Amino acid sequence: MRVFITGASGWIGSAVTDELLAHGYEVTGLARSDASAAALEAKGAATHRGDLDDPDGLAAAAAKADGVIHLAFKHDFSDYAGAGRSERTAVQRMLEAMGGDRPFLLASGLMKGDLDRPLTEDDVLPQHGADAARGGSENLALSYADRGVRAVALRFSATVHGMGDPGFTSVLTKIAKERGAAGYIGDGSTRWPAVHRADAARMVRLGLEKAPAGSRLHAVAEGGIPSRDIAGAIGEQLGVPAISVAPEDAEAHFGWIGGFFGMDADATNERTRELLDWTPTGPTLLEDIAAGAYALPE
């Protein structure tokens, strides 16, 4: 099976690429740079040169593949609305290029909005249209399930962790070192879901193989870790105290990530585990922090 992966050289995408190659798939990865292309080719993957601002090129690559896993996103927080519009255009062009019962798996997030309970796989995200977060791409993609595409949403935890993770937990660790304290917002009761990178990659492969059209899969191993526990683990690893930051001071203390760290984003994984026969086996987030996954140079 020939699979086209956007974001194939990224944190999650490189693990997914390794997972698919190890199971006999032919992988073509989107590469923006010579370094990304070389890294993919060294693994045994083919490359398609381009980026998310080349929707025609993405459509051509999608048309040649037996399936698509779309993991790339322009993480430009200075123009997040523009990044969302680019995302929507790229997704729409790839979907339009696909025909038959081919799988299209799309990276999304666990944005539960005003729900007063954990987000489930049955919950529809409220983001619709080009001006919504991520261009409303999850709902756009799933709408193509009625057009013969095996569209599947991959809802990744706030932190997909592991040694070398450059994501949110790494950013929080750097802020804690700079501030001399690991902060959490308010009473620290807001929760983040988490999953180890290897478990997430295995879930993506199983979703490619098993998930029916219209599925929403939760890459969640831990449904909700209190932010005060995350801060406490970071503080212990760095040797600094964990402190409460008032909500009105969150932006000044944390910068752009404060809004994300203050969200209550707990989620379930029961339907995903049952549908895919998937059981997370990797270390927990707090275990990874304690093991030095986010250790910073002196």
Which consecutive residue ranges, at least 5 long each, have pLDDT under 50?
A: none
Q: Helical stretch count?
A: 12
The CATH H-level homologous superfamily of the largest domain: NAD(P)-binding Rossmann-like Domain
Main β sheet profile: 7 strands, parallel
- Sequence of secondary-structure elements: EHEHEHEHEHEEHEEHEEHEHHHH
Q: How much helical structure, as a percent, in the residues?
A: 25-40%
Q: End-to-end distance, in Å?
A: 46 Å
Q: Strand-residue fraction?
A: 15-25%
Q: In the CATH classification, which architecture of the largest domain applies?
A: 3-Layer(aba) Sandwich
- Determine the mean pLDDT: 93
Rounded radius of gyration (Å): 19 Å
The count of domains is 2
CATH class of the largest domain: Alpha Beta
* Helix/sheet category: alpha/beta
β-strand number? 12
Label the overall shape: globular
Q: Which sequence of strands runs across the widest sheet?
A: 3-2-1-4-5-6-10
Would you tell me which CATH topology of the largest domain applies?
Answer: Rossmann fold
Descriptive notes:
- Strand 1 (2-6), helix 1 and strand 2 form a beta-alpha-beta unit.
- 39% of the residues lie in helices and 20% in strands.
- The termini are far apart.
- It has helices at residues 11-22, 34-43, 55-64, 80-97, 137-143, 168-179, 197-210, 227-238, 250-254, 258-261, 270-276, 285-290, and strands at residues 2-6, 26-31, 46-49, 67-70, 103-109, 150-156, 159-161, 182-185, 191-196, 215-219, 222-226, 242-245.
- The strands form three sheets. The protein has a seven-stranded parallel sheet with strand order 3-2-1-4-5-6-10, with helices on both faces. A three-stranded mixed sheet has the order 7-9-11.
- The protein has two domains: 2-156, NAD(P)-binding Rossmann-like Domain (Rossmann fold, 3-Layer(aba) Sandwich); 166-194 and 222-266 and 283-290, UDP-galactose 4-epimerase, domain 1 (Alpha-Beta Complex), CATH 3.90.25.
- The longest helix has 18 residues, at 80-97.
- With 298 residues, the chain is of the alpha/beta class.
- Helix 3 packs parallel to helix 4 (80-97).
